[in-house]
What does this fold into?
Amino acid sequence: MTARIVSLDPSHQRLQDMLPWFVMGTLDDDERVLVEQHVSGCASCRREIVWHEQLRDANLAQPLERDAGRAFAALRERLPGRGVESASWVANLVEWWQSQQTWLRWTLALQPLAIAALAGALLMVSTRAMHVPEGAFHALARSADASARLVVVFSPQATQAEMRRVLLASGARIVDGPTAADAYVLAVAPDRAEQAERQLRTEHSVLLIQSLEAERAH
Amino acid sequence: MLRGFTKPVQDEARASSNTTDIALIERVVAGDPRAFETLYRGYFPRLTRFLERMTRRPALVEEILNDTMLVVAHNSHKFNRASKVSTWIFAIAYRKALKALRDVDDPVEMDPAAEDLLGRDEYEPKDALMQLQLRRVLGEAVEALSANHRAVIELTYFQGASYREIAQIMDCPIETVKTRMFHARRRLKALLPEPSEDLL
It folds into this structure.
């Protein structure tokens, strides 16, 4: 049952064995020319080619639809620690820093200090300007601080329409982000926080969700 | 989709794809997580299809795929360009699939029961089969082949791998690939009608 049929013409058998890859166009050029020359005079091999084309075109059943984002999220937890990535990133930054001219390094180092000083001065001015005596007015709505906060990471494939749908379904709104890690901070009414979190966890386009309420409580 | 391309265009497309893959591997080695995710998503459809066909166990596919890509992540620095990136990744997937099949006691070589199945009357040639019936019967017949035969069929016809690449993926001599194809073809051949002479 498993013995191979021995052809009287070894070159015919050898070339016939190559026909699956001839049909797929994956033979080397030399092999392809050899097969073409043989096939032009061999009816048996021409029939074989038609058979292989039928099998190629049958394509059989399509595989199941699978969610690459969900599968990748499962793998992400098993990937080498972020420390490795950070080390590499830090190493690149150090290398770049050392390659710069001395004057440029000083300029770059002083720049954040100058920005911080300006920001501090601006904050002092605006705090004085915003100071209002207690009882002067009442807020018409609940202040933003009263909202529950959630951090979410959407799948990179999530479209704007999909993100909008998810937000509407959960009753949350984006108040910050995207961060460097592509995370968004969502705000939701405190009495809907648990329900919103449950809803977000059912969404395939949401890869990660974390409540900030525990941190705020401390 | 490579099918339908002329040979030079196919070669060009494959070379370009491999160049892109090599660039991604280099970024993975440098610690770029986005490059790894791009590589993962690029290979996800091809690997799920290959693993579904080879293992016939849809529930195992994502686990085997993630085991495969975890090896890629850990060993990206060992990729030495002796083969194409796709050949290297499929070789890892093939070994992981074999291990998974052994873990669940699924035979890798030809199952005697499958030989019997293929010998039954319903698997005799059916000249009048409609194309859809033909596809269904062919699908069942391919499933009845051994894992190694299924892998050769899948890699040849649906992943567009050359026989040399298949030998690298399956870590076996080229002649073994051709012999496996010969036996797989013989078992499947009874199901497809012989083309008539006027088609030629």
